[in-house]
Amino acid sequence: MEEPLLDESVALAQFLEVVEQSSPSTLRAIVLKVLSHPQIFCGFDELKAIVKPKVEDSQLLETLDLFSYGDYQDYSQNKEKYLLLNDQQLSKLRQLTILTTVQEACKNGVSVLSYGSLGEALSIDTDNRRGIEEIIISCLYARVLNGKLCQQSQQFKIAVPPCCSRDVMPSQIPDLLATLESLRDRLESSNDRLEKAQNFVCGSVERDEAHWKTVKEQAKLAQSQAPNAATGSGASNVRNALSAGWSADQGIAGRRSSASRQSKRSRGGMGSFTESSFQRF
């Protein structure tokens, strides 16, 4: 059984309260602490919504966007846009890149990722298997990713639930809502079919119960009237109910009796033939 994913809401909520009460001069230091926090992988957009009205620091805001929606390649290709990140923050950015890669794979129906595809997303040479594995393992230990590594095949098998979510870009919200509405419609349709099937089964059970109740009542009535059947009083219902069975039994008995007589006659004929044959001698 897979372990539950990390709940980062508690850790993030503490920083959001601090940022709301902080002065602009301390905001950069607080944001850098959030970027380094080992239990915060989502909610950077909420932090930006609080920070943006207080400061005019493009690098700070771009860095928050990077951790909300970007990946390691975005940082490596445009480092001048962002704050200078330390090793811990770079490790966090690589972990977020893994989450994005896994989310895209799930969206496309892919359940297994090769080291090559993960290394490309992380800007790590494919031959550096150890480096790729260390980042994946760090995600597993942080409980932001579910799955299994296979060193022999150099693949990562995605489990369910696959990973923690990242921030959603505003431009992605309409597509996300459309997907959720489609899922809702499919669930409602499935629920209707299940309800019809359940009603059919319940109706069948009720009919069967009523049928067997009638059968038991008729059998009980036949048993209670059986002693009077021999005298002829009140026996008509019993005779009507059992006449078919009696007729069948008599037919079988008659056939057995006829077969027995034929067998005896056959043996008798053979005996007479033998005596007359001996009398001739």
Written account of the structure:
With 281 residues, the protein is mostly helical. The chain has helices at 9-21, 24-36, 44-51, 58-69, 72-77, 87-107, 115-122, 129-141, 173-229, 236-280, and strands spanning 112-114, 145-150, 155-163. It has a three-stranded antiparallel beta sheet. Strand 2 (145-150) and strand 3 form a beta hairpin. The protein is elongated and about 105 Å long. The chain starts with 8 loop residues before the first helix and ends with a helix. Residues 241-281 have low confidence and may be disordered.
Helix share of residues? 55-70%
Shape: elongated
Number of strands: 3
* Overall average residue pLDDT: 83
Strand order of the largest sheet: 1-3-2
Unreliable sequence segments:
241-281
The separation of the N and C termini measures 99 Å
* H/E series: HHHHHHEHHEEHH
User: What is Rg?
Assistant: 42 Å
> How much of the polypeptide forms β-strand, as a percent range?
5-15%
- Sheet having the most strands: 3 strands, antiparallel
Structural class: mainly alpha
